[in-house]
Structure formats: C-alpha cells, structure tokens
C-alpha cells in the first residue's frame, strides 16, 4: 500500500465495492476476485475490489487468509508490515482502530467490530462541493480533507498533499490559531501609530495625483484614495497597506509569514513575481525557509478579481505545471493565477501591475492593456518606440487622449524600488535602473527623460528632431529601413567620426574618397561615390537644394517629397532604399575590401524597393505597378539623353578602333544641367591594340580636357561596359598595362566625378564626334557651338 492512494466506490454485479487507485503511479487493469495470483500479491498497488468500508489492513488479512496455501508466512508478514510501519497506523499488529485520514476524516470506529463489518462511515455528506485548492468538484464517495472551523471547506487528498500546500509535517494535536498582532495602535479618531514608523499617521483622502510621492509599503505611487500621512515627515501609507496584518497565512506558501519592514542595506526578491524590492515584505517564519513576498503579492487573496478579466482568478494550478502567461507569454518558473471558467492565465508579475495609473502629462487615468490590443498607430510618448502588436509586453493607454506608454517607461524598470536609498555591492558594476542590474537602452532613455534626477546624473537625450523621427516611423518602407534611418538621425551608426568621439582609435577621414571626415551626412550625400550612386538612380540631390546642409535637413526634404501624391510609390520611396544600399556598400568596402560600382548599387536599391512595394501594395495610394526587372522601367535605358543635376556637367566620350590604323579616333561632349553644350571636340590619339584600349585612351583624354578647363563636378558616361566595370571595380587588365593607373591618377584630381555606363543611343553625340576624325584633320579640335553634322544627334530641347 501507499500513503498516496485513494479508494473509489464501484459496483460489481450490483454490489458496492472499494477499488484502490494510486494517485502517483498508474495501475494495471483491476482484476476480479477470482483471478488473483502470486504476482498480484507481490504488488502492493494491485488490491482487488473489497467490501465497502473495510480497514485496509483487515482487507489485506482477508485476502491473505484466502490464499493461505499459496502464500508463505514470510510474504504475509512482509505485506502486513507495510501498514504497521506507517506513521498513520497503530503499532499493534491486528487492531485497526486508527485509520488513515486521507481515506476518510471520521476516526470514530467501533472497536468491537467483527472482521467484515463496517469500520467507519464517511463524514463527507453527499452534496456537491468544490475543492478549496484546485476548485474542481469533490465526490462525496471519496476521501477528502475538511476544515473543522470553516463549514463546507473541502480539499482533495491529492491537493492537500501538494508541496506548496503541505510541508510534510503531521499537525495532529498542534494548535492552528495564528497569533493576531495588529500593525498599528489607534491614538485618536483618524490618527494611528504604525509599528513601522515612529511618528503618528493621520488619515487623509488624497484627491490630487502627486507623481513624486510613494507608499512606503508597496512602493507604488499615491493616486486618488485613502492614505495615512505622517504629521511630521513625508512618510505615507495606503490605507490597505496600513491595515495589513503583521502575520498571515498565504495560499502561496505552507508556512506562516510575518511582516518585515527593514531589510538593511539589501534588496529582496519576491518569490511570487520575482521582482526586487526594498519595501515591506512578508518573510517566512521558518528558519530554514527563505520564502518572502512583497506587499503587493502578499495582498492577493482568492478569489482574485483582476480588472482585466471578467471572471475571478484562483491559485488552482499544480506547481509542477508550466503554464504560459497570456500577457507576457512567459513560461518561466513564476506563480500564476488562472480562471476556472476559461483558459485565462496570468503570472503574478503581470497581475500585480497597477491596472490604472496616472501620468503627469495626462489628466486622465491610463489603463493597462494587453499587447494584442496595440495597433499600428500606437507609439510610446516617452521613448517614441512603436508598440509591438501582439507583443509580450502590455502597455498603458489613456482611453480619452489615446496616450500610450510602455510599462517600463511609465513605472520605471524597477517599480518597487524606493528612491533615495543606496546599497553597497562589492566587486561589481551595476545599473540601478534595471532588474538584472544591466544597462539597457530603454532604461537609459527613461533616466534621461525624468526631471527629478540630479544634474550630474542626468543623461542627455539622443540627438535628432522629434518630428523627423516620428515621420520616419510613418514611411511606407520596410521596418529595417525605418530603424536604419532612425539610427542615422540619432547618431547611433558607427561612422569613423562617431567612433572617434567615443575615444576609439579610428581614422575620421572617409576611406573611400580620402577627402572629408566620414560623417553620416558625408556617407549619404557628400561623398563623390555617393553622388554617383544618386545619379545612377536618377535621383536629383545636392546643390539644387541650396547650400550644403545637415543630414537631418536633407532627410526631412526627402520625407516631404515622399508625401507628394503626383508621383508613383517607387519614385517617392526609392531614396530611402538607396541610403540603405549606400550604408551596406560602405561596410562591404571597409570590411571586405570590395568596391561595387555606383550603377550596381543603384540597380540593387531599385530592385529591393520594387520587390518590397509589390509585396506590400495598399489601396491607400495608386498601385505601384512596377516591372519585375527595375532596369526596364528606368530612364537610363531609354534613348533620351538625361541632363546632370544643377551644378554638375556631364561628359560623354567615345573612341573608334581600326586595326592597323596609326591613330585612335576619340570624341567627347560636355553639357550642363540645361542641356546646353559647354564644349565638345575630337582628337587623334596614339594607336591602340584593341577596342578596350581605345576606349581607355578616350577616357584619359576626356579627363585631361575636363581638368584643363577647370571643371570639377563631372559625370562621365561611356557605352563601353567593360571599361566602366573595370574602372569602378578597381581591377587591372593585361591589355591596358599602366594606362589604367594613369586613369586613376587623373580621377583622383577630380574627386567629384563618376563613370557610368549608357547604351549606344544615349552616347550617339560622342560617337558622331569620334566618327568625324579624318587623317587630314589636326590632332585636336574643339567646338563651343555644335557643328551642323552634330545637331541631328542632339535631342530637342538639348540642341544648342
């Protein structure tokens, strides 16, 4: 037999019997009285059905007597010793006056009963009652525990033996009265002397929210309600906290708890919600037990009326289960409350959060909401972070003003810490504003935005305009782009100048152009490579916006342009994808030593933007309707020549190669943003070995002409894709020899220049100039107005 068994009432052939069932180990199928063998006797769990209400020792003796021929005396004594060794049985060998309480709580037995008679009758009446622990119905045919004081309180046997309910000690003859010690002494009407404070406390009704006053017991802010205020100092207690008993028995713990006010120079961690606190706590009275509850968790009672749920909650789940909280989605080892009418479960960490709180910048109460109640338009007013829809954390929201705040932003990362107290912790560095003493960006932002900190402790908020940052989160781009732009504005990207400002040994000069310091503004707008990418994407930026400005100003202009409904979505939001490609290209250049061409980065940006817009089409605006291949929709593939941005010039060049010719024919044409010709010309250069060599000679000559005429902001275009790829990727070629190094040398003299590939039709003017080189012509010819034979290759209105 086992102390954790139960006898269930069953009927066989119309007669009542008791069948033993173990509540810990599963039993094999119950056998009939005519099918026992020696193996069933050896198992103390396989007892056959027996007459109703017989003592288990007596039932076993009857069974052994019926099998006297098959069972040896040694086996009989071994089985009977199972009962005499139990602390719940009498030591006499044959008497059965003392019965296990977990089979029935009626110990009144007839000592003169004959074997086979009733030993007792169960005192649980045949009425429906629910277990005081698991809240399930108790069958009156089964044994159970009842309370001798509270009428109708019943507990299942298996529930009463749970480790969080019973500590394993027999409580017979032990008085259960808990000494009732009041927490305060009444001095006068509305005046008390609380044991935790030396001054008198006066009853008061707080009608105004005071954000910097907290209850000394639960450490929660004082809102409207009844409080006790010290008449001499700032000591305040909520009325419920002042009336809290000094000793109590809580359903979370089997031992009595006593109220502890002073914790010395240490914090304690609540055993229910796992938060650290330095307020009042209920400590276990047992010397070997370190269980402690903070004042908020200790105030919970069953049934717990949680305002966020329509049904009452109970502590009915077995501690062995690991349920998931419906608020924070956590399955950690935390105490939970559950609803017996539905499947709602909430942990103590979430259940003990204030359901309604006040925010100093809002005149209404803020109500706690689940993460599932968030929508795309909800933002935290303090940290400006977006509330995660269906996230693991709840938030507070004003129903009237729609103000939303993160829990940690409103209450702080550790809401149960008293302000103004310090703790000595040796050999460690800790951040005082998080539960695990580790710094987080969220806690740092909370510290930076609270005015009650000392000036020397105050942290400057992150840079950047609030309006720009809010506009970033409303852009119709991928979340990674929004987060990237936000980091750009707040200075959170590790540019060389940013690293240098944090005392990290880094060269502040841009490693790509080696001209200016590498700031986020330089990377995104000023670097010559960057400007080439913008031009390749046909996005006009830079000088036409006025004098050079800050990154934030330029980004704000792009955001305002994105709100223009006259253009399609790709043109409106492409600049933000190009900025993302610029940052990735910069990292590849620094850490992988790979230099992608501006044309490649522009095409990748267009492709990424197109794919995302096609996958996230909305009915709010005109459908994107962009082609799968973005290059097919780009103006760069049309036959129309496109002018450069204002302040720049565009130089198209071309070369003609003829095998065996003593010279190479070259032509070039320079035009400004309005399409007017600045200069054009052709030349007879040295002989070349192949068409690639001829194109390289033509490019070198165009570079020298541009330099000689004092032009610095130049956009070169060529119809030789091999040459463009070779130059932009920084590669060498055996057919070019040292010519490639001469080209790079002259390009360094023109830091604001780029080389792009165009088709033959868009380069037809340069091709016509190169084709009009004859043997009798001089080595170099230049024109400030186009010759008649050149006008036909210029497109209206870019003719003269």
TrEMBL record:
Pfam families: C1_2, RVT_3, zf-RVT. SUPFAM superfamilies: Cysteine-rich domain, Ribonuclease H-like. Residues 623-643 are annotated as: Disordered. One of its GO terms (molecular function) is nucleic acid binding. Residues 127-160, 195-242, 251-298, 360-409 form the DC1 domain. Residues 465-534 form the Reverse transcriptase zinc-binding domain. CDD domains: RNase_H_like. Keywords: Repeat. Residues 652-772 form the RNase H type-1 domain. Residues 623-633 have a biased composition (Polar residues). PANTHER family: CHP-RICH ZINC FINGER PROTEIN-LIKE-RELATED, CYSTEINE/HISTIDINE-RICH C1 DOMAIN FAMILY PROTEIN. This is Cysteine/Histidine-rich C1 domain family protein. It comes from Arabidopsis thaliana (Mouse-ear cress).
